[in-house]
Amino acid sequence: MIATTVGGRLPPSQQSASAESPTWAVRARAAVAAQERAGLDLLAVAVADLTAPPDAAATVAVWQAASAGTQRPVKAVLPGPFSGALTAGSAVPAHLSEWTRAVNAAARALAAAGAPWIEIDEPALVERKGDWPLAREALVTVAADVTAPLALATWGGDVLGLDGLLGLPFQLFHLDFVAGPRNWTLVDTFPRGPSLGLGIVDARSTTLEYAASLGNVLWRATQTISPARLHVHPNMPLDALPAPVAEAKLALVAQVVHAAGAV
To answer: Coil, strand or helix: which one is 150?
Structure first.
């Protein structure tokens, strides 16, 4: 069982603590340092954002800068092509191919550079389920020729109705069990190959969950899925929370995962 996070971003006050006008590398190091202090096993860093399709060389530089400051593994987080295309305008097909090519190129470059995991963030999938056939095709293309393990992250709701999602060529699926409780219906029939990401800590609430309650949730999941195939994390990025609260939430994730492993 692995304690981690999704999105690889922290609140702006945490991201910008090291410089007046922080670069991506500075923000990346700050985010990774906070996660390491919290005790996460697998750290995460956002190597691009939704402002434009990612540049492969720039994403590698950010990941390398973040990884240089820790001995723990750091996964690289990229925006998904469908979510990225939506930010560019309403005509999704006009932008989707450009985003798909760019995300695939960045993922291949990150894999070649040694990234242990590459996470593709697609929260828009749960908001625009009617566009799923288009998004699914893009994600298959994104995964092509990527030699590192790939994770697909969704949040903000459930993924029911996205036929074939769990059959995509990804090795890990991060699901939101806070805003998407119906995702629990997928656990009993979850495929044998990939790992499951349990988004069970509320990233939009400042209230800290009870460790014992989260431990019960983990126990429920392990009745169906081996602990070795479970990643545990907040249900979505923590960038909407005050920095101390965000770090406390990550520390709670680490606490319950490590306690479960000690049983």
So the answer is: strand
pLDDT for 9 equals 67
| Rounded mean pLDDT, 223-227 | 95
- Rounded to 5°, the CA angle 8-21-69 comes to 45
Buried b (16+ CB within 10 A) or exposed e, 117-129: bbbbbbbbbbeee
Is the separation of the CB atoms in 26 and 56 below 8 Å?
no
Q: How far is CA 61 from CA 45, 127, 156, in A?
A: 12, 32, 30
3-class secondary structure, 172: strand
pLDDT, mean of residues 61-79: 94
Ordered strands of the 195-201 beta sheet: 2-3, 230-234, 195-201, 172-176, 150-153, 118-121, 74-79, 43-46
The highest-level CATH class for domain 2-262 is: alpha beta
**In the chain, where the domains are located:** 2-262
Give me 253's structure tokens: 């994730």
Which sign, positive or negative, has the C-alpha torsion 251, 19, 239, 133? Answer: negative
Q: How many Cβ atoms from other residues are within 10 Å of residue 2's Cβ?
A: 21
